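pinning this so it doesn't scroll away 📌
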Amino acid sequence: MTDLVYVAQRFGTWQTLHRSLPLTITSGCEWGLNMYGVLEATLPHGLASGIAEDGHPLIEEGGTIINAETGSGVDRRRWQGIVHEVTPDGPNLKFTVREIAGYPDGLTFTGNIHGVKVDPAAVVRDLWAYTQAAPSGDFGVSVVGSTPLREGTDSDIKATAAKIAVDKAKAALELRSKPRKAKEAQIRKIREQYAPLLRPLTRARDDATQAYDALVQAKAPKAQLDAAKAQVTTKQEALKKKRDERDKKIEPLQTQLEDLRDEETPWQEPYDDAEEAYRAAQEQARKDGGGLKIEAADFPDTWDEITKLAKQYGFDFTTRAVWSEGKPDYRIQIAYPSAGRTRDDLTFQQGINIISELKPRSIPYASEVLGRGAGEGDGAIRANSARVDRRARRNIVLSRPEISTVSALRAEVATELKYAGGFLEIPSITVRDNPAAPLWSWNPGDTILVQGVVPNVGRIAWWHRILSWKLRSPIEAELRLERVNAI
């Protein structure tokens, strides 16, 4: 029999407030993979409005730590969390407790991280270090473990440098182009000054030409035609004289303009080269995502960033509350590529320790996943993953517009394909304490063989991975599972 004792402790001072809270448990402590557990409990009348020795409420949101412990010894502390919500319920008090691992959930990360060839596990450590460095944020959490991965490139840094180079080349070009633009403006002003003078002369020439053409069409006498033609010539000469006057003023300026353009050319080429380099750097940064970065400007949720790192880079994390006097000694253990081990030393079988009905769940089949991320049309980020087995090809589309890097989308696609096996699984089992598999003998991430009889399927022996588990009573536990090796 494994009974839990609930010890209340004050956050910050770490003073013990109560050594055995008489809680009624609605939903017990949960131990899981890449998650945090939640405890839901009720404190009965008498203690519900109790004030601790330090003058503060015994159960205080954000101020009370709940430790779930068994027996004695260094391994007795099984679970540890902080009160998250408190709700009066008549004479009683309902409250929920988040495992310490979940403290960052809803906590905005206000720092900046930019990793190049960095271990994602180190980024998790940095997130927790930043969180605990803030006032009233230290929970005694240590992040243990590493991965062999080295993620993040300097392509975004290079793109930023390329943008600076573009701006610098543009500024130099614009400085050199000022004399040329001034000369163009000077020429333009002369043309604008002559435009109203040339307009009536052009109109008079055109009118004379039309009159002459009309007389030719009418086969007018020669003397009349000669007189009309003379008018055209006179008007054309007047127009030409004014144009020549304008061009005489412009011609030397045009020569000066050509010289200025020639002087500007050597500065145009570096600008063009810088722009081309910038476009190439931008494209490379778009493809590989650049550095492994978390930026305060995005108001990121710290817990979301931790779980995204685990999912994107394919590692697991589990939790462990270590007994300590005073300040918690709480571990987040990172395992790569996965936590747990195959437990062929334990038995999970109907008639021995599985006391729940085996209710299978169907997982749809696909052999290819087509992923689409942020962007529109041809500019959208894409990543595909496929496998070939004995069955016909079938694909599904995974749309994740919130994902902005190829590497992150690739991780999503791979996970989706891994799960789209077209098989049956047992999503959960309830087991009774038994020498074949004593309570506390397994861990999240372990792989176990589930044996029994499934209606309309028959006798099964399917390997499943433990995603999480929690006590239902001192002698019973519920395990949440995911089938493995089913294809």
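📌 and the second one:
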Amino acid sequence: MLEYINGNIIEVQTELLINASNGKGWMGGVLGRFILLNGVAESIHYRDHTIERLAKKTVRDMKVKCGDVFHTHSGKLNFPKGILHAVTMLKPGQKSNLSIIETCLDNILKFCKDNNINSVAIPLLGTGTGRVKESKVLKLYNDKLSSSKVIFYVVQL
């Protein structure tokens, strides 16, 4: 099921938060600890910079590729089942594409099923830094997520 809302994604009350990630786990660096930058990862990092350290370690151990997802706790954020990081690009600043987003969605759905997740806050993956057209991602979300038993709160800024 899909519900569309506007606002700050880290304020949405769900069990799980989806973060569009790069394959390095970088989320804002030193500057992002003190200045709120644009983006989901940067909002997470600004609120709790320890998650970036954990994300970096996790991707080093996993050797992730585009389309993979990896899980971390949510630290000071209020997501009881944590944060699922969807790798939309390998290096920060790279373009993404619809095929990568589709693979991420398949992996997100599998994670939700395997972990009994009922509610998820999800941004429009790949539409920021990854430069994928919002309209194409919205259509993909409709195709992939609308029939799910999980409630996906699609958060648009």
